[in-house]
Design a protein that fits this description.
Length: about 280
């Protein structure tokens, strides 16, 4: 039983040793192998490599890094500004860069920011706000020696650089003042637009009322004209009928008068001369 356990342990230890005897470095990476037996092997490129199993320690870093330090300063006219320069760097010393970035990944960016602060910020402070905007951050890289030296100490070589933007820090007094002014301007524009909209609504309502009044007046005139035309036509027809049959016309007049009197609740009598034509019919 003991021999079986010992054999199993040895097999496991052998398998672990074989498994840990090699390591892989991917494309775009560099590796550092630290060994108490052979010392340090630096800048190991992509591929499969051997190491002392369970003894050597492997660290991998990107072969190219993009760092974006942040600069905060006040312009000559008192505006708080923030610039975001960037550098693209090639790792020339993987061991040095790994030692700087492993414990604190932000350390390389902070060291470049410190170099920029001491080397170029005094010149940036001489610019007014308008000049800084027009400059578009070009002044940042007029003196790159300090940044190149800081990068070299990190095991980096800068291959490209630029500035991604210039702005006011959102937590600065200048930004808050500007935002407050913008909000006030927006409120004024909204209030003015609301007043204009109300005035336009009143004007449209008044115009609609005027047009409605004109339409009603036109309709009344048209109706009255048609009614007058109808009355004239009725009178003409009645005159023609009366001329052809005077007695029938007299009877119609008497009947209409009798009906109006009844509807009005007035007392009527066939002895009344106005209803004389009805007396014969009755």
């Amino acid at each position: 039983m003991m021999k079986s356990l010992a054999a199993s342990f040895l097999l496991f230890l052998l398998a672990l040793t074989v498994f840990d005897a090699g390591f892989r470095v991917d494309s775009g990476q560099l590796a550092v192998v630290s060994s108490p037996l052979t010392g340090t092997r630096n800048n190991i490129g992509p591929g499969v490599h051997l190491k002392w199993p369970l003894i050597d320690r492997v660290q991998r870093v990107s072969s190219r890094v993009l760092l974006q330090p942040e600069l905060r300063y006040s312009s000559h006219d008192g505006r708080e500004l923030m610039q975001s320069p960037w550098v693209l760097a090639r790792v020339t010393d993987a061991a040095r860069y790994a030692a700087a970035s492993t414990a604190n990944p932000a350390l390389p960016r902070e060291r470049l920011a410190t170099a920029l602060q001491s080397g170029i910020v005094p010149a940036l402070r001489e610019q007014t706000f308008a000049q800084a905007l027009a400059d578009r951050g070009q002044t940042v890289w007029t003196k790159p020696a300090a940044v190149d030296a800081a990068a070299s100490q990190l095991g980096l070589a800068i291959v490209d650089r630029g500035v991604s933007g210039i702005a006011m820090p959102p937590d600065s007094t200048s930004a808050k003042t500007l935002q407050s002014g913008m909000r006030a301007a927006e409120d004024e524009i909204v209030a003015r637009a609301r007043v204009d909209a109300q005035a336009q609504l009143k004007a449209a309502t008044a115009q609609a009322d005027s047009e409605s009044t004109q339409l009603l007046a036109t309709a009344r005139k048209s109706a009255e004209a048609r009614r007058a035309e109808g009355d004239v036509e009725a009178a003409r027809i009645y005159a023609e009928v009366a001329a052809e049959d005077p007695q029938a016309a007299a009877f119609d007049r008497a009947a209409m008068a009798y009906r109006r009197a009844k509807l009005a609740g007035k007392p009527v009598s066939l002895d009344d001369p106005a209803f004389q034509a009805l007396r014969y019919a009755h």
